[in-house]
Amino acid sequence: MSAPIDLELKKAFSELQVKMIDTQQKAKLADLQIDQLTRVQKLAKLTNAEISTLSDNTRLYEGVGRMFILQSKEDINNQLMDKQKTAEEKIKELEQKKVYLERSVKEAEDNIREMLLSRRTTAQS
Question: Is the pLDDT of residue 38 over 70?
Answer without folding.
Answer: yes
